[in-house]
Amino acid sequence: MEANFMKALVFQGPKQFEVKEVPIPQCGADEMLVRVRFAGVCGTDNRIYQGTKVIAAPRITGHEFSGTIKRLGSHVKGYQLGQRVSVYPMLYCGHCYCCREGRTNICVNRTTIGYEIDGGFAQYVKIPKRAIECGNVVPIPDNVSDEIAAISEPIAASYHGMQQAGLRDGETFVIIGAGPIGLFHTQLSRSVNLARRIVIEPIPEKRKMALEMGADFVIHPAVQDAKAVIFEQTGGQGADAVIVDVGVTSALEQSLDYVKKGGRVVIFAGMPVGSKITIDPNTIHYKEIILTGSSSSSAINQAEVFRLLSSGKVSTDGMISGCFPLEEWRTAFEMKANYVGVKTIMDPWA
């Protein structure tokens, strides 16, 4: 490969990805260049491939990655060459009504590395001025591996979901779905002294993983009556909080029956566009249920996740299910699409 070129996985259009040599990005005075070590594969990457999430082409995708700083613009302060970093990918505008309210994660004008800006499925990625201004370049603690740092963005999103759930010591927390996010929520909930963590999941291997990652009880929804089990475990009260980590409308509808009066339900998983649910509004009305969503996160959340990982309060055992070179992107994408394992990552230097 020529000195000024790098290997990258380039999105050319729906159902069209290609590994090719492209020029290494040139940095301006307010930018930096990161040498990518690992990049995580997200469900959104699959949706881009399928064409259900529309982005402009050509584009280097990949919004979850870790690496080291290779070049620093002359105006960039506070970082060092060779420093290990992860980059929170969403850039907020700072002036819309959401940003003014401190809710930068739902910025009206946000842009994202890997969607509108070239991302981490490459050997190098340029970090734009706005990302640095937003504080999105997050140092990696010495005792957190590059592999785990590459998936810190979805863990940070999971952390924000936990904030939305408002968990308190002594409560019962129900997690619907033991995919990557559900397992992250199981792990992260260990930072709170809960009375019990209950995970609802139909796949035996996933239920086993949930128990290994800290669940107190698991429920097979096709065999067991989830509501009955939850109420039995809580002395007939119901759960304090439920988080919906599967994009299945029936799971959301059922979740309202799992919480006690005054309980909280968080919709974390996105649903197919145009999805509809049927609920009895009296369930929310008379039980005073708080129903809310959780979208994205922030660099602050990502830094907090690194603190939890570094302190050992959250374990990373079993979170990485496979690592592939860019040329084997189809395998990595298919594992994600078929819910195999927890997280897959790619190594652009392999």
Task: Report a brief summary of the structure.
The chain has 350 residues and is of the alpha/beta class.
Describe the structure.
- The chain is α/β, with parallel strands linked by helices.
- It has two domains: about 5-150 and about 320-345, Quinone Oxidoreductase, Chain A, domain 1; about 160-295, NAD(P)-binding Rossmann-like Domain (Rossmann fold), CATH 3.40.50.
- The protein is about 30% helix and about 25% strand.
- It has helices at about 45-50, 95-100, 130-135, 145-150, 150-165, 180-190, 205-210, 225-235, 250-260, 280-285, 300-310, 330-335, and strands at about 5-15, 15-25, 30-40, 60, 65-70, 85, 90, 110, 125, 135-140, 170-175, 195-200, 215-220, 240-245, 260-265, 290-295, 320-325, 345.
- The strands form four sheets. Strands 3, 5, 6, 9, 10, 17 and 18 form a seven-stranded mixed beta sheet that branches.
- Strand 14 (about 240-245), helix 9 (about 250-260) and strand 15 form a beta-alpha-beta unit.
- Helix 5 (about 150-165) crosses helix 6 and helix 5 packs across helix 11.
- The longest helix is centred in the middle third of the chain and has 14 residues, at about 150-165.
- The two termini are about 15 Å apart.
- The model has no long low-confidence stretch (mean pLDDT about 95).
Topology:
Blueprint (H helix, E strand, L loop, with lengths): L4 E9 L2 E8 L8 E9 L2 H8 L8 E2 L3 E9 L11 E4 L2 E2 L5 H4 L10 E2 L11 E4 L1 H5 L3 E3 L6 H4 L2 H14 L6 E5 L3 H9 L7 E5 L3 H9 L4 E3 L6 H8 L5 E6 L4 H10 E9 L13 H7 L2 E4 L5 H13 L8 E6 L3 H9 L5 E5 L3
Parallel strand pairs: 11-12, 11-14, 12-13, 14-15, 15-16, 17-18
Antiparallel strand pairs: 1-2, 1-4, 3-5, 3-9, 3-18, 5-6, 6-10, 7-8
Helix pairs in contact: 5-6, 5-11
